[in-house]
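Regression test case RT-17, inverse folding.

Input:
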């Protein structure tokens, strides 16, 4: 069975997002072993300089890097490639032929450090629009569930 890790910065505070994450986690248990790893986000000062921003991303990035061993790493980033659901499903299936561990990385409010981006095997982007990183976690889980449904030729409202 494929192992999916989602390494993300920050905790989910809203109950409706927690409920969605729990629901998709249950649905995914049929297809993969899912592990969600929450990294503590760093406080962001009001007067944020570029140096402070990079420092925060580096601190968060170092925490993320501790969880990325022996897996194919896909980081979510606005500069990443966009996929249709069918293409994403095919991508996951192709990766799983060579590596049974896939780690998805969702950065904090400021994004990901240079080191995390460089260690990534691939960058993907769900949209050029900006969304809260907590909501992106739900998007990712939904798309993973959809990907497995597509791989197994199971119906899922399209």
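Golden output:
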């Amino acid at each position: 069975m494929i192992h999916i890790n989602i390494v993300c910065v920050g905790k989910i505070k809203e109950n409706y997002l927690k409920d969605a994450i729990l629901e998709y986690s249950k649905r995914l248990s049929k297809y993969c072993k899912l592990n969600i790893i929450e990294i503590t986000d760093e406080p962001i000062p009001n007067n944020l300089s570029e140096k402070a921003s990079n420092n925060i991303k580096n601190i968060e990035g170092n925490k993320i890097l501790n969880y990325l061993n022996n897996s194919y790493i896909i980081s979510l980033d606005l500069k990443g490639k966009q996929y249709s659901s069918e293409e994403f499903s095919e991508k996951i299936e192709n990766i799983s032929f060579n590596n049974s561990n896939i780690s998805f990385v969702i950065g904090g409010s400021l994004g990901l450090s240079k080191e995390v981006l460089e260690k990534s095997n691939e960058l993907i982007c769900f949209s050029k629009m900006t969304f809260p990183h907590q909501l992106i976690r739900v998007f990712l889980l939904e798309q993973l569930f959809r990907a497995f449904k597509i791989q197994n030729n199971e119906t899922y409202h399209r």
